[in-house]
Design a protein that fits this description.
This is Sulfotransferase family protein. Keywords: Transferase. Pfam families: Sulfotransfer_3. α2 packs antiparallel against α3. Strands 2-3-1-4-5-6 form a six-stranded parallel sheet, sandwiched between helices. The radius of gyration is 19 Å and the shape is globular. It is about 40% helix and about 10% strand. The longest helix has 15 residues. With about 270 residues, it is an alpha/beta fold. The chain has eleven helices and six strands. It has a single domain, classed as 3-Layer(aba) Sandwich (Rossmann fold), CATH 3.40.50.
Length: about 270
Amino acid sequence: MRPVHFISGLPRSGSTLLAGLLRQNPRFQAGMSGPVGGLFNTLLGEMSGRNEFSVFISDEQRQRVLQGLFDSYYGADTRADVIFDTSRLWCTKLRALQTLFPQARVIACVRHVSWVVDSIERLVRQNAFQPSSIFNYLPGGTVYSRTEGLVGGDGMVGFAYNALKEAYFGADSANLMLLQYETLVSDPARALAAVYDFIGEPAAPHDFENVSFDDQGFDDRAGTPGLHAVRPRVAALERPTILPPDLFRRFENDAFWRDPELNPHQVRIV
């Protein structure tokens, strides 16, 4: 099977931009979050004890079925030599991924949680006439109730943040790298050089002035146009937050990856 790697981490932290840059390499296939992670979980569930026929399924068979998922989804019509699959779920599956794909690497995109929440709230306000799937298409609420929904354990941000901590502090972090949004947008050449080095692939040229990525159909259906929009030119943009000051300060100490003393397994941070 061709090499497969994984993009995970926090939402609104550069995963779509990273995919847009990687796919400039004709040897690579990368995209926004797709269905493979959900299919992976569904297969695990259907092969568990809740299925009366699970007594006939060994761990070796489970592994072959899960590997077959990738073979089938990224089939012969996928001409790329290297696959990058994106899902926030992958940070919770490091042990399984290491077993199935020992050479695979997981790149987790991270960003200060305050700015993640700010970015989502900005999208909500930009699309004032389209309730978003992020909030189950409910049109009510305030910035405070929306934030509570986002950062709860099952919320878009809370689940990804907890999954990231599980991966970062867990015993299976040898194949994990954290890529900071700030690095990706301010120094994309250094960020991509680190990615190439991490996955063991030869460097290739990239155009940071003309990045292309278009999944508008998905975003429109989700009631959140712009959710996966990527600006053509990679650049860091300074702007004030639109969050109330108390809400913004609530998460100012949550960037645990910035503290070297909180990196027991020496996870690579770019």
